[in-house]
């Protein structure tokens, strides 16, 4: 029988379970350590996801087991967890609306960590106090390397993209994806539809650097190049949140970077950060992903 542990987090009563279950077998990283990581990283993580409808990727049997994306807040979600009911046109499950959770406090974050929701994904827009969707406030470019290209090549493209955005009056912030690629974010002023804008910039770079950059999704066009995925700006899409764990062999994290780290990257290993690494980074440097 699963061992359950009652706890109180900021006045909220929670029941944690299976704390000794190993979720990252190669690293012997347990659910207790996942909950500990999210609890300790919360001060810098929460500001980046507050107000944003949450999609999680859950791994109840660890990263080597079955996983599933979950948008709808589970039926057993505590009533104190903030939820917003939003339309989801084109839902693959033929639902007109979904009850999304919005993670804005430590108890909600711990609740989801206890569900083995290792990955947190959010859109580039927030909701207002009435639960209505606001215009997008972020622009994102997802840089995905086609093997044998790696994050080293992503860094080269990120530097090109930084200059393009700078010329447009936008200041870019880099982070690793926590897997093989990286993302660039910029605060967005709604000067036009963000996906169309991002696509146009990606196409410009692909035209100027055809040996290094591709802006189309066709898999066969990607080997050895970096795909600038502009489509994450679609309001229906989400991107992994800054400081979210990823379901890799190690408990890697989508980690905010300095531009010097991007400039100096010579090997993929240079930009691999695990949960303990990121906690140490934040203690030393604070939130590198603060608003530009």
From TrEMBL:
<dbReference type="InterPro" id="IPR033649">
    <property type="entry name" value="MtLigD_Pol-like"/>
</dbReference>
<feature type="domain" description="DNA ligase D polymerase">
    <location>
        <begin position="30"/>
        <end position="289"/>
    </location>
</feature>
<dbReference type="InterPro" id="IPR052171">
    <property type="entry name" value="NHEJ_LigD"/>
</dbReference>
<dbReference type="Pfam" id="PF21686">
    <property type="entry name" value="LigD_Prim-Pol"/>
</dbReference>
<dbReference type="InterPro" id="IPR014145">
    <property type="entry name" value="LigD_pol_dom"/>
</dbReference>
<protein>
    <submittedName>
        <fullName>Bifunctional non-homologous end joining protein LigD</fullName>
    </submittedName>
</protein>
């Amino acid at each position: 029988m699963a061992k359950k542990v009652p706890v109180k987090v900021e006045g909220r009563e929670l029941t944690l379970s299976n704390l000794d279950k190993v979720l990252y077998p190669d690293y012997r990283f347990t659910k207790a350590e996942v909950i500990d990581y999210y609890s300790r990283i919360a001060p810098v993580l929460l500001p980046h996801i507050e107000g944003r409808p949450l999609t999680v990727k859950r791994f109840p049997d660890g990263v080597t087991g079955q996983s599933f994306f979950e948008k709808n807040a589970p039926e057993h979600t505590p009533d104190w967890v903030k939820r917003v009911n939003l339309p989801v046109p084109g839902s693959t499950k033929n639902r007109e609306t979904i009850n999304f959770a919005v993670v804005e406090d430590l108890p909600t974050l711990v609740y989801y960590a206890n569900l083995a929701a290792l990955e947190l994904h959010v859109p580039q827009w927030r909701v207002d106090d009435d639960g209505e969707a606001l215009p997008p406030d972020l622009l994102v470019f997802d840089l995905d390397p086609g093997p044998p290209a790696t994050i080293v090549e992503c860094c080269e493209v990120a530097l090109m993209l930084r200059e393009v955005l700078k010329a447009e009056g936008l200041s870019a912030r880099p982070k690793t994806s926590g897997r093989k690629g990286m993302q660039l974010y910029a605060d967005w002023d709604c000067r036009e539809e963000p996906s169309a804008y991002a696509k146009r910039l990606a196409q410009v770079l692909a035209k100027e650097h055809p040996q290094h950059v591709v802006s189309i999704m066709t898999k066969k066009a990607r080997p050895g190049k970096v795909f600038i995925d502009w489509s994450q700006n679609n309001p229906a899409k989400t991107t992994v949140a800054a400081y979210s764990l990823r379901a890799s062999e190690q408990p890697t994290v989508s980690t905010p970077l300095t531009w010097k780290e991007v400039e100096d990257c010579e090997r993929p290993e240079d930009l691999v950060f695990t949960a303990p690494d990121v906690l140490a980074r934040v203690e030393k440097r604070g939130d590198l992903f603060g608003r530009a």
